[in-house]
Amino acid sequence: MKFSAFIHALGKKWWVRQIDKIVFLIFLLIIFLVYPGQNILVTKQFRIPKTVSFPFFSTPSPAPYPVNKTGTSPENLVSATSVVVQDVTSGVYLYRKDSTTKLPPASTTKILTALVVLDSMPLDEVVTVQRVVNMGAVIGLVENEQITVENLLYGMLIQSGNDAGYALAQHYPGGVDAFVLAMNKKAQDLHMSGSHFVNPVGFDDPGQYMTAEDLARLGAYALTNKIFSKMVGIPAITISDVTHTYFHKLSNVNQLLGKIPGIAGIKTGWTEEAGENLVTLMERNGRKIIIVVLHSKDRFGDTMQLINWVFGNFEWQEFKAP
Hints:
11 strands, single chain, Beta-lactamase, 38% helix
């Protein structure tokens, strides 16, 4: 009896000693069960008030898509070996004929020449004319004449002056050779994979060639430059050197400019090997069309036929984004 009484007393004392720990554990269990968890706290912390709204970002509607409503082709309307007709806004080709054939570009080369100049020379920079190149079309520069880059660009783009083009290339750091390297680099940057250049003005050479597709791409890009776009749309202008000693009266070689409403440039070209070349921007009824004809027998007639074909057969359909 004494031993059992001892055990009973000992057990009683052990529970007494452990009661505070037991109470503490029960308290922690209650806290764990009733206190909000981490996910609830995070949710409350980043809960978006009902008064907050996010802006709605709409997908832009695609450009109006040109559709040939008659299915008529201009195949028999033009004499050019290579042709591209392209809608500028959508980038859609309306017509292509041998458009990746590499052909002599003649003076359409000067579109690229102008871009290299605009990238590298201020318009008011004065150029001292060095060796005058008098082959083909010229504006009549004189050796040692001092004339601005801007006026030389006018001479090259409006009257297609080869002397003006070479004066600009000679003025480039490193001279003509370095300038031609810059032309090929620019063509590469514009993904003109079917083109190559060995001179700045378009003289015939086996190493100088372009495709109609490259020329359309080049023309559309060049027209995004406001200075270039302005210059190629001028029918006639008179320029001078910085001392107003020499004056050069310029007339645009493009016979359609100023005669056909909507014609806004851009560049002609001709050599015996290249035949007649023409790159044209036509604007009508809010539409912009680039037309390229290479190795043509009648570049102006071909271009007019293509303009009439486009606006007589195509309609532009609007597609709204969902």
